[in-house]
Structures are given as C-alpha cells and as structure tokens.
Amino acid sequence: MAEHDITRRGFLQSTAYGLCASGLLSQAWAASSGGVPTRPLGGTGVQVSMLGLGGHHAGRGRDDAKSVRLIRKAIDLGVTFMDNAWEYHNGRAEDVMGKALRDGYRDKAFLMTKHHGRDKKTAMQHLEDSLRRLQTDVIDLWQFHEVVYDKDPEMIFAPGGGIEAAELAKKQGKVRFIGFTGHRSPMLHLKMLAYGYPWDAVQMPMNVFDAHHKSFQQHVLPILVRRNIGVIAMKTMASGHVLRAKVATPQEALNYIWSQPVSTIVSGMESEALLEANVATARAFKPMSAAAQAKLLARTKEAALTGEFEPFKTAPNYDGPIGRKLHGVK
C-alpha cells in the first residue's frame, strides 16, 4: 500500500473508530440557541457550532453592510464559530467582523483568527492588530496560519519563535486557546504535533478526496482524537472541486465530514442563500454508516488519486502572500 493510500478494510476500521471517538457524534445533538448542533472543541471544555463561518468569504465583498448582515444572520441561525485571519483582504475581513460583533454579538460568538507570526515579535504585532480590528479584548482561539513550508515548525519553536508569543498572549489573557492550520501536507502537521505542545485545536483539509491522496484524515486525525485536540475541518468542498468533479452532492460532502470526529467545519459562505442551505444540512445531519462512507469514497477514488482536485496540497498559488514572501516563494 502506498504511503498516502487507504484500503477499504483500513477505511472501514478507521471510520468505525471515528464514529465512536470522543463521543463527538453522540454529543452533536446538543443544539445551540439558534438550532445548529454543537460539539466539544477537543479538551477545552467549550462547545462550538458544528458549522463555522469562513472569514475570508464573509469579508470578500465590498459592501460592509452586506458582510455585517451575513455574519449576524449566521450567528442568529446558530453558526457561532467565527473563522478569520490577520491577512484576509489586507485586514478588511477582521475589520468587518469586528463591526458585525458589536451590539452584543461578540458574546454569542466563539471567535477564532489566525496569524503569520513565526517569530515572537511579529506574532505579538499581529495579535494587537487582530484585537483592534475585531474590537475585542480576547480572542477565543488564536492559530498559526498556513503551516505549509518545511521550515515553519522550526521557526515557530525556535528560541524567540512564535510559540513564545502564544504562551505570552495566554498569560496576558488576550487569547484563550492555541492552534495551528495548514493545507499542504499531513507530514507537516505531524511535525508540528511531534513537538509535544498542548495544542487546543488543529485545522486541516478534510473532504471526500482526502482519504485517497496525502490524507490528513488517515495520518493526522487519529492522533488528534487520541490527544483530545479539537479538529477543525476546512476545504470540505476541496475549494469547489468536489462539485466540479461531480462526484458528490454538497449535502453528501458535508455529511461525510460531519460523520468523522471533527469539532466543526469552516465553510466559505458568502451569500445568505448558501448560509441557509448549509444550516439546513447541519440541522438535518445524521451520521453516515461506515458502509455508506466506503461506498462514497469508492465513487471518488478515481478522481482523487492524482491530487488534481486538491491542488492546495501541491500548487503554491494556494498559499497566502504573507507566507510566500516570508519563504521567498514567487
């Protein structure tokens, strides 16, 4: 078996494990005030909505009022996990979300943002920028963004590295929990985990192609579950390629990931219609059986094996400009 392939038997075993792990699925039926089920974020003691709002898409439009309305509607519907990043739209995404979280909405939301500080000084600068833009005194989850380059883990954990900023921010009460993200390689995630830091959450690609190619689900997910680290799934539609490949419906794609031991799915929803559709799917969710999951993956295998439909795992043009500049990638 190739390093990143997964057999039918292995998948069925891992799925059975996933369906039981941490009791996530059995706990998913605890509805938030807006009616979207919630799940535990690892060992933090916090419940988060199983559907999260992607900050990049929510802050994409030029109309601030429209973006604010979308974010507030999401919270009103029960989508209370808010994703963002220091670099999104040159800070505009955080600015817009800060406006949306006024008038009592901040108290209803679990606020996550990400940063590119690989050294302590830069990370703290990014933190202060994010706090100002988001108009808050504390960020619930602060994550190292885009760990996609081989040197990223060493930079973060070097003396004077970004991990020192994470610890300082927690001591100062400006951050509650710490995590990291990345879309390129499960081996980089394993490298970050090998440092033994008590991560609260990890964000990574999970979709109906991933099990067949450079699989985060196969290589990283079991470790996160074992260490009780919150799992944040992203790119559940493989940046739109799931629909372009015509191998699964949006509902199938989401239900497949929710049937894994994930805390939440961060979904790029830039319209109220898409938000409403995803909320409806979340409210109607029932775990897929192992047999149904295996059948779905059999349908996606041929399209997935080359990695064509997960270009973010190989193509540098999916990496953000801050990281590209830091690592000298044009």
Folded structure, characterized:
The model is unreliable at 1-24 (pLDDT under 50). The protein has one domain: TIM Barrel. It has 330 residues and is an alpha/beta fold. A hairpin with a 5-residue loop joins strand 1 and strand 2 (37-40). It has helices spanning 8-20, 24-27, 55-58, 64-77, 92-100, 120-134, 152-157, 162-171, 186-194, 216-219, 221-226, 241-245, 250-258, 272-284, 290-304, 321-326; strands spanning 30-31, 37-40, 47-49, 51-53, 81-82, 110-115, 139-144, 175-181, 201-205, 230-234, 264-267. The strands form two sheets. Strands 4-5-6-7-8-9-10-11 form an eight-stranded parallel β-barrel, surrounded by five helices. A three-stranded antiparallel beta sheet has the order 1-2-3. 43% of the residues lie in helices and 14% in strands.
